[in-house]
Amino acid sequence: GVSTATGGVGRRGPRRNRREDRRKLAEAGIESLEDLRGADAEVVAGEVQGVSADRVREWQAQANAGVAAD
To answer: How far apart are CA 40 and CA 20, in angstroms?
Structure first.
């Protein structure tokens, strides 16, 4: 599920915010790191309230670097 697959998303923030980020991504159809890697950052940002395209690109970079893999 999204909780483990995107577990590293938002690592720098408080745990509560990370869970919220993962929930928002799941609502936008991002269920895995593979989904995140292949997503259009602008589209995701448009679907996820409170998340900018730059933030999505940051998460994608983390996922691509293996930082987000738990």
So the answer is: 20
Q: What are the start-end ranges of the E strands in 1-70?
A: none
Tokens for 11, please give them.
Answer: 């690592």
Confidence of residue 19 (pLDDT cuts 50, 70, 90): confident
For residue range 30-62, list pLDDT tens digits in order: 999 999 999 999 999 999 988 899 999 999 998
DSSP assignment of the chain: -HHHHTTTTTTTS-HHHHHHHHHHHHHTT--SHHHHHHS-HHHHHHHSTT--HHHHHHHHHHHHHTTT--
Sign of CA dihedral 27, 28, 34, 36: negative
Residue type, 61: A
